[in-house]
Amino acid sequence: MRGAESSNYESQKVMIRIKIKVYAELQAYLPGKQEESVIQIRGGARVRDLMESLKMPEHRVMLILKNEKKANEGDLLSDGDALFFYPVIGGG
User: Where are any strands of DSSP class E within the chain?
Assistant: First the structure.
């Protein structure tokens, strides 16, 4: 492998740490049903990969912030990122 292929392969072998904070019913998807956690995931992962690993359905999430900026499921994660997940709010 050379160039970008090699770099991508190497990043997938490295584990990165992501700080996660969730609100309300989204706590059910974090280990121990906590409000905050630090999760390790493979390098090269995206927000959607993290959500899938936590079995957090997209339809339950209204807003995602990554390092205090609006994010989406396709955003690439980096070591030390902080993610905040806000649930869909209903009422009437």
Answer: 15-22, 36-42, 61-66, 69-71, 82-87
